Amino acid sequence: MATTKWAVDPTHSEIGFKVKHMMFTNVSGSFGKFTAEAETDGDNFDNAKFAFSGDINSITTGNADRDGHLLSADFFDAEHHPKLTFESTAFTKKNEGDYTLTGNLTLHGETRPVTLEAEFGGIAKDPWGNTKAGFTITGKINRKDWGLTWNAALETGGVLVSEEVKLAIELQFVKQ
């Protein structure tokens, strides 16, 4: 069967994350500049291969001071580590529409395996004749696994920034 290439449609995709702040509220952020691609056998996404690259300098949380801190050596150290990348090692069907996506995430100069949940939304043609495929990807990582260890203690106990980062990713691909 012929290999099919899929490119992300960035205008209909988003790479988001949430981190607990002060142990009781979530701060949301996203990456504004990224690329993603998939490779499938025909239009069948079973065992598909995925690759992703995000520009660390495009991070936004809606607060310029916080964004600046995230780009600094305390967190992402964007000057020395300007990209985060993901390369899949497996895309396994659990049941109709639900998959497990495993792969290697490189962030802050460290590469570690991650396992994410993927919901396949389906394939459809848009009004201009383009074949599109949609995915919702979720998961959790511990930022300390990638050397992102900055924190501050709270006088009430606990810490300012959670170690757990929740990922919320929406990807729409265009068949090439």
Automatic annotation (TrEMBL):
**InterPro entries recorded:** Lipid/polyisoprenoid-bd_YceI, TTHA0802/YceI-like_sf
Q: Where is the Lipid/polyisoprenoid-binding YceI-like domain?
A: 5-174
Question: What name appears for this protein in its UniProt entry?
Answer: Lipid/polyisoprenoid-binding YceI-like domain-containing protein
